[in-house]
Amino acid sequence: MARGDWSRLDESDVRVRPGKGSRPRTKRRPEHADAVTAMVIGKDRGRWTCAVDADPERVVTAMRAREMGRVSVVVGDMVALVGDVSGRPDTLARIVRVDERTSVLRRTADDTDPYERVVVANAAQLLIVTSLADPPPRTGFIDRCLVACYAGGLEPVLCLTKADLASPDELLAGYAGLDVPAVVTRFDEKPEDLAERLKGQVTALVGHSGVGKSTLVNRLVPDAELATGVVSAVGKGRHTSVAAVALPLPLPGGGWVIDTPGVRSFGLAHVTADDIVNAFEEFAEAAEECPPNCGHLGAPEDPNCALDDVVTEGRASAERLASLRRLLVSRAGGGGMINPVAEPDSLS
Q1: Beta carbons within 8 Å of 337's beta carbon, 6+ residues apart
Q2: CA 120, CA 204: separation in Å to the nearest integer?
Q3: Model's pTM, two decimal places?
Q4: DSSP tally for the chain: helices H, then strands E
Q5: Pairing of strands 78-83, 93-98
Q6: What string of H, E and C letters represents the secondary structure of 203-265?
Q7: CA–CA separation, 32 and 25 (whole Å)
Q8: What is the enclosing helix (H) or strand (E) of 156?
Q9: Half-sphere exposure in the Cβ direction for 66 (13 Å, CA)
Q10: Which residues of 104-140 are buried (b: 16+ CB within 10 A; e: fewer)?
Q11: What residues contact residue 222 under an 8 Å CB cut-off, 6+ apart?
Q12: 271: which of 145, 229, 250, 316 is 20 to 30 A away, CA to CA?
């Protein structure tokens, strides 16, 4: 038979060499009906620490299942675990599914970075911790956190520390138009009002170095340093201040606080002007009548912005619109109203 003359062969003469192409592939993934639900409370170098049924007494170390590929898994995610979920030393479960997120705290490295990072998932609140003195409040940073809240579905809460050194009145007045809840704390008093607000909630914390955030966490969470060490034990010695970590609040009430000391900048490249406006119900519908590419800033930048009509018609106050536009300016890289700072906002 001449080389290449396949017409003379019947099926019995053809041998198929086993290999990658000889086995049909399927996109069906295992259902994992026996999987247990857990909350991710820590992450370090390809390993996740998870609390089964969000119970801080049932901590499991897990890896991401190969079938998930590069699916993002962050602190606060609710996941499905299979394998060894006993939590015994040197055991490893597998994360096979990530549930749909109810909220996300996102950031980018700066306002030009196209790559967004999810810092925390499923937090109900973002506690924006800022001191009233030593260091002075940075409203530019506060505004950017508010933007991230409105875009990600979290409720913002201002936590003003060091009220024994300065009055909170001026700062609170600057945010009155946004109706943002606020809690004021002092170094010489227990943060009882704050503890009540956090009870039963999943709350993420952000704040600059020196504002008293670590002091608050230590007061709110007994044995916070011990709990942090347990969560980060997977990292085998890595310093715990470089990653988000969820810490359980004491009973009764319970809840979780997620400390985010690893966030060093709050870029908002992923947030659009419409994302912010849509968080304000009284302006969201009117924004649809704005001209194309309207930034909703009003005259002179956007002289035909329909948001002004909402105020003219008495459906919202001028102070409310001014507060909204301040957030829009902050998203675009501008500063705040009170004590603005020229240096870039950062977290330690």
Answers
A1: 139, 174, 326
A2: 7
A3: 0.80
A4: 9, 13
A5: antiparallel
A6: EEEEECCCCCHHHHHHHHCCCHHHHHHHHHHHHCCCCHHHCCEEEECCCCCCCEEEECCCCCC
A7: 19
A8: strand 155-161
A9: 0
A10: bbbbbeebeeeebebbbbbbbbbbbbbbbeeeebbbb
A11: 250
A12: 316
Chain centroid, CA 143 distance in Å: 16
pLDDT in tens, 68-123: 998 999 999 999 999 999 999 999 999 999 999 999 998 876 777 777 889 999 99
Question: How far is 126 from 105, CA to CA, in rounded Å?
Answer: 8
For residue 163, the one-letter residue type is A
Tokens of 311: 């105020």
192-234: pLDDT as tens digits: 999 999 999 999 999 888 888 888 998 999 877 755 555 555 4
Q: How far apart are CA 106 and CA 270, in angstroms?
A: 8
Strand bridging mode 78-83 / 59-64? unpaired
> Six-digit token pair at 160?
């003003």
Could you tell me if 283 and 310 are in contact, meaning their C-beta atoms sit under 8 angstroms apart?
A: yes
Instruction: Tell me the CB-side half-sphere exposure of residue 140, using CA atoms within 13 A.
Output: 17
Token look-up 């890896």 returns 63
Q: Which of 161, 157, 158 has the alpha carbon at shortest distance from 133? A: 161
Q: Quick check: 337 and 326 in contact, CB under 8 A?
A: yes
> Which residues have a Cβ under 8 Å from the Cβ of 90 and sit 6 or more positions away?
none
- Sign of the CA dihedral 311, 312, 318, 323? positive
The β-bridge partners of 78 are: 39
The structure tokens listed for 336 are 């705040």
- Residue 18 token pair: 């086993």
pLDDT of residue 43: 92
Residue 101: CB atoms within 10 A of its CB come to 18
